[in-house]
Design goal:
Shape of chain B: elongated
CATH topology of the largest domain in chain B: FAD/NAD(P)-binding domain
Mean pLDDT of chain A: 87
Radius of gyration of chain B: 22 Å
Strand content of chain B: 25-35%
CATH superfamily of the largest domain in chain B: FAD/NAD(P)-binding domain
Strand order of the largest sheet of chain A: 1-4
Structural class of chain B: alpha/beta
Largest sheet of chain B: 5 strands, parallel
Number of strands of chain B: 18
Helix content of chain A: 55-70%
Largest interface: A-B, 21 and 20 residues
Mean pLDDT of chain B: 95
Oligomer: heterodimer
Distance between the termini of chain B: 14 Å
Strand content of chain A: under 5%
Bound molecules: flavin-adenine dinucleotide, iron/sulfur cluster
Number of helices of chain A: 14
Radius of gyration of chain A: 25 Å
Low-confidence stretches of chain B: none
CATH class of the largest domain in chain B: Alpha Beta
CATH architecture of the largest domain in chain B: 3-Layer(bba) Sandwich
Distance between the termini of chain A: 47 Å
Order of helices and strands of chain A: EEEEHHHHHHHHHHHHHH
Structural class of chain A: mainly alpha
Number of helices of chain B: 8
Amino acid sequence: MPIHEKSLIRPENLEVHEHLEIEGVDVSGHWSTFIGSRVVADYNEAMEEEIAALPGGEYIHRCWQCGSCTNSCTVNALNPDFNPRYWIYLIRMGMESELLRDKDIIWQCVSCHKCTHVCPRDVVPEGVMKATSHWLELKGHTPKSHSMIFDEVFSEQVFETGKIEDGRVIKRFFKRTGQALAQPWMVDMVKGMLRNLPLGLLTRMGLATLVAPRTKDWGDARAAIEEYVAEREEHNRKALGLDELIQSARTEI
Amino acid sequence: MTKPILIVGGGPAGLAAAHSLATFGQACILVEKEDRLGGAPILEGYAKLVPSGEWAKDAIGGMVDRAANHELVDVRTGTTVSSFSGEVGNFTAGLSNGDSLDVSAAILCTGFTHFDSANKPEWGFGTFPDVVTTSQVEQMISSGQGVRCPSDGRKPQRVAILLCVGSRDRQIGREWCSKICCTVSANMAMEIREELPDCHVYIYYMDIRTFGLYETKYYWKSQEEFKVKYIKARIAEVTSDGEKLIVKGEDTLVKRPITIPFDMVVHAIGMDPNVDNKDLSAVFGVDLEPHGYIGKANSYSATGLTNRTGVFVAGAATGPETIDDSIAQAKAAAMAALEQRQLAARLVS
Ligand SMILES: Cc1cc2nc3c(=O)[nH]c(=O)nc-3n(C[C@H](O)[C@H](O)[C@H](O)COP(=O)(O)OP(=O)(O)OC[C@H]3O[C@@H](n4cnc5c(N)ncnc54)[C@H](O)[C@@H]3O)c2cc1C
Ligand code: SF4
Ligand code: SF4
Ligand code: SF4
């Protein structure tokens, strides 16, 4: 094997046998490195449909692999492994195991939408990145990201009260992500606020933290939002076949 | 009264030339080798044509009626031209049925021959019944039978269309692009998805050449509305595991070998030079261009002229052409023949 091709082979595909004899020839040890094949053996046709069913993924099937999104991408400039064009291809062709290799970087998309503005086919790659991160979480391939937890805490509070009270959002977020509230930057920020904000505003903020105000007559709006969210979640679960997945996991246990 | 003009070949090109000449009061004789007029779209039973979307039997059938029913068009089917002598204005053509014709000029509209997929044995045609050609799928659709696996009549759930079969391949001496097969394949993929919505269609390509306005109408539409999948790979081999066809190749975009099971594999066959071209070249004294199609002079003076004055050529006889372009060329060649008649008349008077 020419040396330069070594870079194309993933370490887990290199096999070295301590003791191996083939037709009387001893091929043990490092001198006889074997390369496991990396053949794509089938397409998982459900994968594209699942991701297309999540918000943002709708136009994935239009992609013709020109690479404009990757060329324009903010994150790709920092990390060449961050490659929206490539992931879109893997998803479209249903190469799931290949996609899962990159599961820990896909969520790094910063939603700058540069890709959206260059894509000649209106695929909206940013949306596809979002849908893919979401898909990875829903399928249990990645743990909930901090940004996802933050979104949840934030929207929960809006749904509950119709208002946002930053202090509570931050408290809950830190709690759910297992972080200490008294972080140095936080302490500095609060100190700064106490020093610089007018007393009236501080008093109101303090009260709000204590009594958690609500929007008047919020009940109906809340019910409508919750109904919509439940519908959406139901839709996502169905699109991804999650209920069946849970069902079959249960019967196995 | 000038002598009739000989038209050889009754496909879209020959029919268009005959109709044009007759409309201008020029008598013509249409000689066709097969026992039916209509050329490839009729003889091979194509389904809906690109880009009109009309059924071949209606569209080209209409052309057949128009030409054959014209009193100035004399149709001779089931025969070929075996000798051709004389000069412009005064040719004598001997037919294989023994007839002899006095004609003033000739337009060769002898078309192309479908690539025989058996010449690419590694892609499974002739070995596995479910490996078929675009012509065969056209017939499945036009006959109303629908797209079915020939082996057992089942509806395929996954179809691969391999592009450039018999084109762009130096291994088999065919360096040309057949021009229409990308568009025909994209159209076919949509027809399959329309008839069998649960069937996934994959197109394996090297380049997609849905030129000009066909881009949106076929390539984009097949992706955007019909979710046809395009994979950049030239397939190495089609085999079988006893149940399914196994398509092997390299997916060049991910640098991975692939071995994917399919129910049906379709060869997008190319347009070879007519197998008769060597004979036609000898009989009519016309040169072939390097690929084996009938050579034509540049278009700037007399459109569609061959190297022999008074002998014109049009349509797929000159190289891979679409129906629309074949018709346009035939009309241009008819016009060039009329120009020549006019010029001769002026010289005489
Ligand atoms: C699978 C497939 C699908 C296609 N679908 C489309 C489509 O949808 N739209 C489109 O625009 N194009 C399509 N094409 C291309 C189309 O078939 C050609 O453009 C068209 O047939 C060319 O017309 P022609 O008259 O030049 O030649 P032909 O159609 O080949 O006609 C030539 C005629 O000459 C006769 N002939 C041949 N040799 C002799 C001889 N020695 N003496 C007497 N007669 C002879 C033949 O029998 C035939 O009738 C398709 C091609 C293929 C392979
Ligand atoms: S939105 Fe995401 S994928 Fe698109 S350019 Fe920005 S970082 Fe890259
Ligand atoms: S820019 Fe658009 S079409 Fe091009 S690779 Fe990216 S998503 Fe696909
Ligand atoms: S038109 Fe497309 S399929 Fe046909 S030879 Fe050209 S590139 Fe290949």
